[in-house]
Structure formats: structure tokens, C-alpha cells
Amino acid sequence: MKKMVLMTSVASLMALQLQAGGDIAPVEPAVEIPEVHEHAESDFYVIVKGLRIAGDSVHHGEAVLDGDSGYGFGIDLGYRLGHGFAVEYDFSYAKNTVSEIHDGHVVEEADGKYYTHSLDLVYTYELTETLGLFAKAGYEYEIEEIEAYHIDADDNGFIYGVGVEVAMGHDYKFVAEYEHSTIEGPRGDSLFAGVMFNF
Fold first, then answer.
1. Is residue 29 part of a domain?
2. What is the CATH number of the domain that holds 111?
């Protein structure tokens, strides 16, 4: 009788083990992990900036026109081509004081106004996720007005610039830039500082 009870117990245990060894159903995770999407910059951007012009000296007939430093503003409209390259249309307005000099003596002072348009190619090298260095070159058209000297002229040339951009958020950056122009006049080179908006 004991042998019969023992054999029945062993058979029951073996049957239980066989049932436990079946396929295991996959367990779904209780918490869903959100997907991470990287923020991509827009192809279009606009830069609004203030500027300071250095002023320069240029011969005008028998006189020398000596431009003082001055101030103004500018706006750039840009489109990113990819691989760090972009094209920009730039407009700027600046104003300074221009002195007319004869034989080393200042004869008269007047206001000079400058309206500048340019089409540029820009290359930006990203040092980090928030810091980039850029260089630009382009064709420039400038209108120069000095009413007191009866000057209302236009000229064209090339501009070369370098600058830095610092990301302040997903949609905007701080931009600082230096530009040199081949156009000779009392305006001189320019320093810019402003904000880039992506849209």
C-alpha cells in the first residue's frame, strides 16, 4: 500500500513538472518609453542686427572725405543649403559724420547715409551643439548719400566676413560678425551684433 501511495505521488509530481515546462507567453512592459526626437533647424532664418561702422578716408576731387564711426541696423534673410552652407540676402542702413578736409584743415562736416544690399554665400562650422563659426563672401551694391557735398552715388564690390553664432534656444541664436567691403568710401568696415530666428 505504501508503494502504491509513493508511486502515485511521484507520478503526480512529474505531471505537474511537465505542465510547467510549456511555452512562456511574452510579458508586455507596464510603462511605455517615449521616443526621443532630435530638434532639426529650419531651412529658413532671419537675422536682425545692430551695426557699427568704422569710418574711412577717401579722396573726392581736391578734398579728402574723412568718415567718422557711426551706427545703423541690418537684416539678413537666409536659406540653408545643407552641409554647413547657406545663401543670404543682406540689407543694412548706416549713418556717420563725414568731414571735408582741404590742406589738412576741416572745412565742413556733414551727415553721410549708406544703403547696402548684398547676396552672400555663408559656410558655418559647428564647434559644439551651441557654438558655431562662420565665414561669408558675396557681391555688394551700395548707395551713398551726403547731401551737403552734393554726393548721391552708387557703387558695387565684394564683401568678406567672419563671425560667431551661439545658440540661446531651439529657435534663436546670438550672432556677432565682422565685415570688410572692397567699396571705397567714408563708410568703412562694419561690426554687427544681433539675433537669428529660425522659422
1. no
2. 2.40.160.20
Three cell numbers at 26?
A: 511574452
Global pTM value: 0.78
Helix or strand (DSSP H, E) at 10: helix 2-20
φ, ψ of residue 54 in degrees (nearest 5):
-80, -25
Beta strands in the chain (DSSP E): 44-53, 57-60, 63-67, 70-82, 85-102, 105-126, 131-146, 151-167, 172-181, 190-198
Cα radius of gyration rounded to whole Å, the chain: 35
Average of per-residue pLDDT values in the chain: 88
Q: What is the pLDDT of residue 7?
A: 53
- Taking Cα atoms as reference points, which of 177, 176, 178, 179 lies closest to residue 138? 179
Whether 83 is in a domain gets the answer yes
